[in-house]
């Protein structure tokens, strides 16, 4: 009888622990409806996160900087988006956020973002960045990844930041029909949408111009302290990243590729034909570009758009990724 009671107690404890674990495993992930979020979408659809005990809930935003704010406020524990001055300012202000894995790089032949000129202006002879001197270029926000792109483009051409006027749009633009803009810096699938609609013509492709770590997975400090779930989420992410790399970046064709296209189209709302035109490069195991986050913070500091220096070690922590990789080999 005592043995039966003990067994029942053990079962009850196991069930209670399972329920608590299931509740704790629900994780909100802030993302944008971009092609660069394909790895996240794939991990959700294929059940890779769930396989390791994490149940993601995608929370969609219109731009990258609000995701940093949501991480800082505790509204979301995980963000998967571009690196911005806003993120670095949050950390400079004393709120800890950790960059933990690659989510997309600007890379030769794998351009994620681009600068497009209005079609009528292109037809009239505006074909280079120098031709845009004194003109208005749309970006999501001041301090955004697109702002960084334009700033670096200008430097490469020997131009000054004030040679163009940046217009913050607050969201990723899907059209260049408004005559108040002469050009726009945007990301896939919007680049391909604008080209296909005949609204804009690409004059600079970022990855072909200068490779950089444009997007990452980020943890709030609170989630990072929940080591078990932080590593578990990273295992699901690595499995999804490997699937993406093998299906899209290695083969670029066949049923596996078509499946990633269909999943990405489902979440972004873009037609599959548009999705096929621009998948970004990402490290197969999710590793970050060494030293690039530090280069970015130094650039933003020189522009006066972050409060103080943010050393790379103060914001990058790949230990979750390393632990996940060690356990998955």
Overview of the structural elements:
By secondary structure, the protein is an alpha/beta fold. It folds into 2 domains: 25-106 and 213-328, Periplasmic binding protein-like II (D-Maltodextrin-Binding Protein, domain 2); 113-209, D-Maltodextrin-Binding Protein, domain 2 (3-Layer(aba) Sandwich). 45% of the residues lie in helices and 19% in strands. It has 15 helices and 10 strands. It has helices at residues 2-24, 38-45, 48-51, 65-73, 85-92, 119-123, 145-156, 190-196, 206-209, 221-225, 227-251, 255-268, 272-275, 292-302, 319-328; strands at residues 26-32, 55-61, 78-82, 97-106, 113-118, 136-139, 165-168, 183-187, 200-205, 212-220. The longest helix has 25 residues, at 227-251. The N and C termini lie far apart (45 Å). The model is unreliable at 1-24 (pLDDT under 50).
Pick out its properties.
45% helix, 2 domains, D-Maltodextrin-Binding Protein, domain 2, single chain, 5-stranded mixed β-sheet, 15 helices, 329 residues, alpha/beta
Radius of gyration (Å): 21 Å
Low-confidence stretches: 1-24
What would CATH call the architecture of the largest domain? 3-Layer(aba) Sandwich
- The CATH superfamily of the largest domain bears the name Periplasmic binding protein-like II
The largest pleated sheet is described as: 5 strands, mixed
Provide a concise account of the structure shown.
The chain starts with a helix and ends with a helix. The protein is globular.
